[in-house]
Amino acid sequence: xxxxxxxxxxxxxxxxxxxxxxxxxxxxxxxxxxxxxxxxxxxxxxxxxxxxxxxxxxxxxxxxxxxxxxxxxxxxxxxxxxxxxxxxxxxxxxxxxxxxxxxxxxxxxxxxxxxxxxxxxxxxxxxxxxxxxxxxxxxxxxxxxxxxxxxxxxxxxxxxxxxxxxxxxx
Length: 170
Description:
Elements: E1 2-8, E2 13-21, E3 25-35, E4 43-53, E5 60-70, E6 73-82, E7 85-86, E8 96-97, E9 100-111, E10 118-126, E11 134-144, E12 147-156, E13 161-169
Antiparallel strand pairs: 1-2, 2-5, 3-4, 5-6, 6-9, 7-8, 9-10, 10-13, 11-12
């Protein structure tokens, strides 16, 4: 289910939001893990799963954009929530990217000087609360002499950071 909407609260305030709720499943899945302790022959362990979550498919994604505009200046408070995601197709809670919520601020000033249709300056402050989170990663598992080893690897995202922009329309 996906929902999106916007509301012009007043002439200056607006709010836009979107919500996606989904369940993305694999009916039947076989995980294959190799035992690397044996040189002559690799032993294979197969585990069958049913009705597992597809990796990197959160059940909930939510976005919000609260804006304020006055005389060419637009201020926006941007929020995003992404639910828990699995690193593989096993739905194993030891192999997840935790849910996260981040907030950004966007300032845009636009004018129309005589030689241009539009000139816009923007300043975006990303992750204003310096949230520590990962948005992607991978997992890798193997057996060695009968013992299971699992490595989860994550891509941490930047803390608070700033991005400036200039847009010219002729």
